[in-house]
């Protein structure tokens, strides 16, 4: 089975076939997504929030990203695996960043990295690409730079904002990205960017006109607690099913229904407790 690569994604853009992306963090979820035919598995830096209960993505370490990216890479046979570079890495001195990038790329087995940001990210994108490392861009909403993700708003609501986003999109394309993630961009602005760029656009909360669409796996599976953004569609309600399953387990144990005869291992010889002490 051929691995999804940049050429395949550009071919999908040209043919009008939508690209699919899911944000995943672990082996089992990644394996299921890969088997389902998801094109891109993005290991995002919000892992620290969704799996470890932290309040912001900036607390995510490089070591955590490497750990989770390796797990996802082991799970995926077809999908392209992309590692989101955390804020702590993007803030390194340039030489340290490039050395760390080469090490991380080799250690994780991913096929690409994602660098978030506009004009401030262009030089990083250019230098990473020069190392032969494929880079996905990320514009629109920039979670690494926001202190409050709950009250964030869609990007590109005015002509001025739309023009600025288009300018940034062109800059990151010129810098060498093979695709760009549009995060919480209005549908109209995302459509303009998609039409203008020769590389694929993948929208998360960015409407119907992008070349591809992405969702956080925990959101589409219904695992994320509390409110989810407007753009999320839940394809199942796994959290409720998890809670109900745990309740059934508690009840069965308390009432003596689990383990049952079919769940136990049997000795091949007769075991008499007091004789074991002799």
Task: Itemize the secondary structure elements and their pairings.
Elements: H1 6-15, E1 19-23, H2 27-36, E2 40-43, H3 47-50, H4 62-75, E3 80-84, H5 87-90, H6 94-108, E4 112-116, H7 122-130, E5 135-140, H8 159-175, E6 179-183, H9 187-196, E7 201-204, E8 212-216, H10 217-220, H11 238-254, H12 273-276
Parallel strand pairs: 1-2, 1-8, 2-3, 3-4, 4-5, 5-6, 6-7, 7-8
Give your account of this protein's structure.
The protein is an alpha/beta fold and 278 residues long. The chain has two domains: 6-238, TIM Barrel (Alpha-Beta Barrel); 241-276, no CATH class. Helices cover 42% and strands 14% of the residues. The chain contains twelve helices and eight strands. It has helices at residues 6-15, 27-36, 47-50, 62-75, 87-90, 94-108, 122-130, 159-175, 187-196, 217-220, 238-254, 273-276; strands spanning 19-23, 40-43, 80-84, 112-116, 135-140, 179-183, 201-204, 212-216. The protein has an eight-stranded parallel beta barrel with strand order 1-2-3-4-5-6-7-8, surrounded by six helices. α7 links the parallel β4 and β5 (135-140). α8 (159-175) runs parallel beside α9. The longest helix is centred in the middle third of the chain and has 17 residues, at 159-175. The radius of gyration is 23 Å and the shape is elongated. The model has no long low-confidence stretch (mean pLDDT 94). It is an enzyme of class 2 (transferase). Belongs to the PanB family. InterPro entries: Pantoate_hydroxy_MeTrfase, Pyrv/PenolPyrv_kinase-like_dom, Pyrv_kinase-like_dom_sf.
